[in-house]
Amino acid sequence: MNILITNIKELVQVEYSSKLMVCGSEMGTIKTVRNAFLLISKGKIADFGKMEDLFLPEETEGRKLKTIDATGRLVLPCFCDPHTHLVYAGSRELEYVDKIKGLSYEEIARRGGGILNSAKRLHEATETELVAGAMQRLEEVIQLGTGAVEIKSGYGLNTEDELKMLRVIRKLKEYSPLTIKATFLGAHAVPAEYRGNPKEYVDLIINEMIPLVASEELADYIDVFCDRGFFTVEDTERILMAGIKYGLRPKIHANELDYSGGIQAGVKYNALSVDHLEYTGDEEIKVLLGSETMPTILPGAAFFLNMPLAPARKMIDSGLPIAVASDFNPGSSPSGNMQLILSMASILYRMTPEEAINAATINAAYAMGLSEELGSIAVGKVANVFITNPIPSIEYMPYAYGSNKIETVILNGKIAW
Ligand code: NIG
Ligand code: FE
Questions:
Q1: Distance CA 208, CA 220 (A)
Q2: Is the pLDDT of residue 57 over 90?
Q3: Which of 27, 43, 137, 240 has the least CB density, counted as fewest CB within 10 Å?
Q4: CATH 3.20.20.140 in the chain, residues?
């Protein structure tokens, strides 16, 4: 079926010549067309422009064409969410209460809570249960405007359970209309049985897990939590080198808890993204400038853990690109709501609405290796777009925080919600 959206009050994030990301001051601009149409054919964006220029090519006229009148409404490319852990079993609201009472993320982790708690629950869950839980979360984020998600393993922490998680993600790729990328994160935490001997666990990741993950082609990317109390720069480099040998490009957790050297390690191994970045100073900014690594901030995690904020304003003003992601996970960010992330990016990080939208669309698409296919309204790109409720302006998107401003979601050219 072809879809024609007419009378669009403002078609947002249009692109005439392709770009993979936007950096620095460019992030403050979003191209739009007012009083626009958008034509979708065979799952792709076929044409767009001003209503007065609407001309339907002959082959479209004969075919089934569904017309949607978007008077008073905006149309945007769906959000890309380049960092989530949305395959998990059980929630962790009791730790959340401990956090409110003053325990830190690291203290909870040291007591066997945190990631290890999720690993225990994941071990007890079947693949079918995990798929069902994740499908429900995916359905929820579609309704909130997300069109692509990266999903990590990392609650397995042994060979069998890491593979189980990645097989669940492979099923999600098959069942869900979302575009999904899988990341192997065996190095999310050191399991209890390796406490005191983390190198042995790193050896297991390198010698056993990575080759198996690669032989079943279960992952697109490889991740390491390179931070104080988790994995060192040396561990990280060994794991990344092993992953790269099998074609897994790094996307890593870095500098959430300290100036861990994770950003430098990520850039050195040409990571697609380095994520979190609460501890980013001049040296880290210098290393990122001129690299092909997307700095990705996770406002939901910083908000939920009440952590210092990554210096996004300074990074953009230094010429860097920024992407945002939800970090959807049961411990540090139990929400995949990218509309809320837009609001946090602007309210907490002082990013303008345009910067926040660029960060959640084209730059986020880059951070999952998809900016040639997704992240903007461009002819030939995959038709993942949403239509808002009647709203006054782009600025209203982050301004009206907490409510769903989306009425219709189209994924791969089909109405998904
Ligand atoms: O991105 N920082 C490390 N990992 C996750 C948290 C996962 C968890 O607590 O379950 C994050 O915030
Ligand atoms: Fe994370």
A1: 17
A2: no
A3: 43
A4: 79-366
Query: Of how many residues is the chain composed?
Result: 417
Ligand 2 centre to CA of 363 (Å) is 18
Specify the pairing of strand 323-324 against strand 179-187.
Answer: unpaired
Domain 79-366: top CATH class: alpha beta
Report the separation in Å between the CA atom of 130 and the middle of ligand 2, taken as the mean of its atom positions: 18
- Alpha-carbon distance of 75 to 90, in angstroms, equals 35
The closest residue, in CA terms, to atom 6 on ligand 1 is 332
Is a pLDDT exceeding 80 seen at residue 63? no
* Residue 416 predicted with pLDDT over 60: yes
Percentage of the chain beyond pLDDT 70 is 98
Expressed in angstroms and rounded, the spacing between residue 157 Cα and the centre of ligand 1 is: 14
> How remote is the CA of residue 330 from the centroid of ligand 1, in Å?
8
Instruction: Note whether 86 and 149 are within 8 A (CB).
Output: yes
Position 173 scores a pLDDT of 98
Going by C-alpha positions, the residue among 374, 377, 376, 379 that lies closest to residue 46 is: 379
Nearest-atom number in ligand 1 for the CA of 227 is: 2
**Residues having CB within 6 Å of any atom of ligand 1:** 85, 114-115, 118, 225, 253, 256, 301, 327, 329-332
Q: What is the pLDDT of residues 87-132, one digit of tens each?
A: 999 999 989 999 899 888 888 888 778 999 999 999 999 999 999 9
Q: Which residues contact 102 (CB under 8 A, 6 or more apart)?
A: none
Asked if 117 contacts 155 with a C-beta cutoff of 8 angstroms, the reply is no
Q: Can you identify the CATH homologous superfamily of domain 2-77+375-415?
A: Urease, subunit C, domain 1 (2.30.40.10)
In the chain, which segments carry CATH 2.30.40.10? 2-77+375-415
Q: What pTM, to 2 d.p., does this model score? A: 0.97
Tell me which of 332, 333, 335 to substitute to probe ligand 1's pocket, judged by most ligand atoms within 8 Å of the beta carbon.
332
Ligand 1, atom 12, residue with closest C-alpha: 332
Work out which ligand 1 atom sits closest to the CA atom of 92.
10
Ligand 2: centre distance to CA 337 (Å): 15
